[in-house]
Amino acid sequence: ERKGIGRLRRLPARLLSGEDIELLANVELPAELPLLLRNGAVGIGLLRSEFLFDEELPLPDEDGQYAVYAGMVSDMEGRITTIRVLDWGGEKGIARLRQLGLPAGDEAENPAMGMRGLRLLLAHPEILEVQLAAILRASLIGPVRILLPMVTSTNEIIAAREHYERVAKRLRRRGVKISADLPPLGIMIETPAAALTTDALVRQADFLAVGTNDLTMYTLAVDRASSMTSELYSPLHPAVLRLIRASADDAFRSHRPICVCGELAADARAVALLIGLGIRSFSMNAAALPRVKRMIRSLTLDSCDTLCRQAMLTSDPIELQKLVRQFAV
Ligand code: PEP
Ligand code: MG
Q1: Nearest-atom index, ligand 1, CA of 48
Q2: Max alpha carbon distance in the chain (Å)?
Q3: CA 156 – CA 119 distance, rounded (Å)
């Protein structure tokens, strides 16, 4: 098995019909890098930076964050590292802000719909700017992209970009040699609003990453963390699929790179379906990479297209799940 994986690592993630697929890894901790490299990821598609913002410690400063990003970018040896800025969500963000003595607003009835992700960063731009400065410095070591979480409108991206440019200017004034072309600034598509207005968002975003975990939650009105409703929580719901398609079609039309990086990308059969939608880039937990690559190497584009066409015809989640489960290569 180990030997098989060693061989697989060096083989391309290519369909039998010849199309290349990009397989990236989601990372929550730097300790996952060896597994990612062993399993042949061509880069990091999503670095969740929350681990840096430890519950017990004060907010990390620019130098502290820089040291971590620089170490990871260097370990990636020229492969892309996509760093998502802090995505505190729901109760977690509010509780932590309080703990730090920062304004946190009132107690929200629905924290998942309140101050989270980019909204929270724009309300506390000092946190965003310190993180962007650290990432920009690390981008001198190797290729980096920056990802904004929980976007719902163009204004938010424009505001984030203003901070980004201000931070770059400030660093240059300090003598840090940042290139004129800043690293790409992309957005997560994880709300129905973002999926349905991708045509507008792409004018401000350099690349897109579909986060199917939150997109599923916000589309189906099912909490991703609740065990009471876990049977209802499935990204393989026609509504979620149609949103992904709408977003992907807008991305293709505007020639913006798009990647699927939620848990759905770790489901090899779902990946076949998404290839049928036109997606060519996936980011998943590193442990799932060999399984997905093996599947990809056994598929033809025709078989993916057929699965996708059938899938898009169904409006019934149970039927869709059955169709994908029964998909035989
Ligand atoms: C997602 O929402 O699908 C995602 C990739 O981000 P996270 O799981 O970190 O919320
Ligand atoms: Mg998310």
Answers
A1: 9
A2: 59
A3: 8
Q: What is the complex's ipTM, to 2 decimals? A: 0.99
Residue with tokens 């670095």: 47
Tell me, in angstroms, the distance from the centre of ligand 2 to residue 166's CA.
26
Mean pLDDT calculated for residue range 216-233: 88
Asked whether the predicted pLDDT for residue 1 surpasses 60, the reply is: no
- Give the separation between CA 120 and CA 14, rounded to whole angstroms: 40
- Number of the ligand closest to the Cα of 151: 2
| CA 1 to centroid of ligand 1, rounded, Å | 30
Query: Which atom in ligand 1 lies closest to the alpha carbon of residue 210?
Result: 3
* pLDDT given at position 223: 87
Q: What would the pLDDT profile of 195-206 be if each residue is shown by its tens digit? A: 999 999 999 999
Element at 185 (helix H, strand E): strand 185-189
Residue 48 Cβ inside 6 Å of ligand 1? The answer reads yes
CA–CA gap between residue 222 and residue 295 (Å, rounded): 30
320 and 236 Cβ atoms separated by less than 8 Å: yes
Residue numbers in the known binding site are 48, 84, 190, 213-214, 224
Closest CA to 275 of 247, 299, 291: 299
Mean pLDDT of the chain: 94
Of the listed ranges 73-82, 216-225, 304-313, the least confidently predicted one is 216-225
CA 188 to ligand 2 center in whole angstroms: 8
Q: Which ligand is nearest to the CA of 209?
A: 1
**Which of 83, 190, 219, 220 should be mutated for ligand 1, with most atoms under 8 A from CB?**
190
End-to-end CA distance of the chain: 21
Residue 246: is its pLDDT beyond 70? yes
Residue 40 pairs in a beta bridge with none
Question: Could you list the active site residues?
Answer: 261
The residue whose two tokens read 């061989």 is 7
User: Which pLDDT value is given to residue 91?
Assistant: 67
SS3 205: coil
